Amino acid sequence: MKTQINGTDILELGFPEGKIIGIALKINSKRNGFTRDEMIANFKNVLETPENYIDDKIFSKLAIALIEKSNEKPEDFIALNQNPNAYSAYGLDHIEDGARKQMEVAMKLPVTVAGALMPDAHQGYGLPIGGVLATKNAIIPYGVGVDIGCRMALSVYDIPEDFYFENEAKFKKELIANSIFGAGHGFHGQYKSDHAVLENDTFNMNPFVKNLKDKAWSQLGSSGGGNHFVEFGIMEFAQDDAVLKIPKGKYVALLTHSGSRGMGATIAGHYTKIAKDECKLPEVAKNLAYLDMNSQLGQEYWMAMNLAGDYASACHEIIHNKMERALGATILAKVENHHNFAWKEIWNGEEVIVHRKGATPAGKGVMGIIPGSMTAPGFLVRGKGEENAINSASHGAGRQMSRTQAIKNITKTEMKSILQDHGVTLIGAGLDEAPMAYKDINQVMEAQQDLVDVVAKFTPKLVRMADDGSKED
């Protein structure tokens, strides 16, 4: 049987649109003896190193077309810097080649000042997930990411550990009642929440952003799909923390992870397309297209990005407020940090735009939350302000399997077994979010001891995620 691969599959590998897709599909249509996975692997290798396939009897035409495409230069072509600065990397031995190569390309942008790769890094679009990039007067929409302002939020309650285990049914009831998941899902009528973010004047900046307000209102206080979650767990402080004023002990805590929902994703797509039209980079760097911060378009994206970040924060605030009222608990500490964003910061004495795509701000004394997986611990941390890391740390454990690989290689029985072994109750989630799909969080934390101090450890106990296999919309 012929290998079933379509144009979308080829595009998702990173091939450029146009005649090259046709060449690849024609190669695929011939009976070359490859399985689907083998053909995908071959296509990926040709894309990464076409020069190695110039004389190949099957893939030479595709390789030559890719080389020719990479040498095309429009009139307003922006050349890459062929002698870039080195970037800092943490836990490099456990970071895939794809993420490293993406970081190497990002360092060649003419606007790049510095870069760093976090130990949870893996390949993404444009800047790798776990990539930190400081630029001069330029903002990269795909350097921020699709889920703008995606963040962690933590509430530590005055509830002792024993109370959770004695009342697990109540916690489960409140978790189901006060959270909602899935791409496209939202609230209607009397169930909609109100928040000051909806009065933000940036919604009136232009018709495009204004048209996002109704959907934003509907999804306000929801958590979306993909790897987003709302979970209860036990937060252990091994010693007193004077800054947070929390004594040594174990407390029930609520941890949430989600971003700016459909609004943020739509903003990302819109301004990425504009950036690609405005900023003609070579094919290898096209997803790193940037906007000048002095331009109207650059300022538009900057304002829309900040609006999406405020909106994401509002979603978490609503969830945490609902849960606080439902439990009748007192909050001892609240910590929140975001990881798909760009900030104006001073680095080496000059103002730069720091993009943290799946990386946690970790300036001196800055609090952050670094989750593991649904069975692995997460950590409440305090940043050390490491300049080589551009004041950053990882945003989690990071994936070691793609969603497709996880679904293919992990069984429901294996997932159920590991949940039982760790005493975790799961509501929703598919095999693509199985704990085995993620790197070892302890290994990741060991690789960033110079970046953060651990303040407390969070152990998940009751986890809710989207149950429809959806990604963010």
Automatic annotation (TrEMBL):
Write down the InterPro entries for this protein, in alphabetical order.
Answer: RtcB, RtcB-like, RtcB-like_sf
Concerning Pfam families, the annotation shows: RtcB
Required cofactor names: Mn(2+)
Q: Any idea which UniProt keywords this protein has? A: GTP-binding, Ligase, Manganese, Metal-binding, Nucleotide-binding, RNA repair
Q: Which reaction does it catalyse?
A: a 3'-end 3'-phospho-ribonucleotide-RNA + a 5'-end dephospho-ribonucleoside-RNA + GTP = a ribonucleotidyl-ribonucleotide-RNA + GMP + diphosphate
Q: What is its EC number?
A: 6.5.1.8
Record keyword Chloroplast present: no
- Protein name, per record: 3'-phosphate/5'-hydroxy nucleic acid ligase
Lineage of producing organism: Bacteria, Pseudomonadati, Bacteroidota, Flavobacteriia, Flavobacteriales
